[in-house]
Amino acid sequence: MPLFKVPYHITVSFDREIHPLHLHGDTTVEARDSDDATAYVDKIWEEGDSLFPDDFVSNILYEAPITATDLDIGTPELVETHGN
Questions:
Q1: Could you give the CA distance from residue 41 to residue 12 in angstroms, rounded to a whole number?
Q2: C-alpha distance from residue 16 to each of 37, 43, 72, 75 (Å)
Q3: Which of 6, 9, 57, 73 is the one with CA 20 to 30 A from 39?
Q4: pLDDT-derived band of residue 67, with 50, 70 and 90 as boundaries?
Q5: Are 69 and 50 a contacting pair, CB within 8 Å?
Q6: What is the b/e burial string over 8-37, where b = at least 16 CB atoms within 10 angstroms of the residue's CB?
Q7: Per residue in 13-31, pLDDT tens?
Q8: What share of the chain has pLDDT > 90, as a percent?
Q9: Distance (Å, rounded) from C-alpha 21 to C-alpha 35?
């Protein structure tokens, strides 16, 4: 299956903070096409916090009063196909 690099942007709002925290990243996933790649990243997000960087999870996510999180998924980029 082809590999897609999928960029994302996470916004985290805290209970007593005026300005939200913005995290940017990308993940590489196997998918049939860019729509499937986007759907897979959305599924990861819905199932838990695995898109958050490890240091964010251990230092902030479980310590701070978070009021909201939001995920924006960018356009997947094809990075490899079988045989390449």
A1: 17
A2: 35, 29, 23, 33
A3: 57
A4: confident
A5: no
A6: bebebeeeeeeebeebeeebebebeeeebb
A7: 888 878 898 989 999 999 9
A8: 45
A9: 27
